[in-house]
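Shipment paperwork, digital attachment
Item: protein structure file
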Amino acid sequence: MYWTIVLLGIRFIEGRFGGRLVSVVIHILLPSFLRRVMRAYEIKAIIRESGAELSRIGRSRNWRLSANREQLTNLIHELEQTDEPSWRWVLTKIKESRGQLTEKELVNLVARNPGISVKELVILANCTIAEARSAIDTYEWQDED
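Attachment content:
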């Protein structure tokens, strides 16, 4: 069973596959993608390396970026490291579409990076200082089974 929710042109899909919960896939529309970006091959390679999928919609000029939140976070981090000004609109669209991370996702992020500081978590997850401290405290105080 799959659920599809469409909000402001962004499509979220979640469901079960083989008894396991599939992560939420976010579809972001990128109109006139190739006309707006310079060095398109480089940005396509960065998107592929992050695990996200970039596909053309039919025969139009419009493209669709499909990724989960973790892939979008990695993609944002990679695109912020570059200094190509024409890629900024893609970065803005991704940041708007990613949304805020939940408490559980923040704790999972801390679990993958145990030495992360509050400041790094705030920058990486785009959350408040209180949310970052709460996630780090939750991770440090959880029982290790």
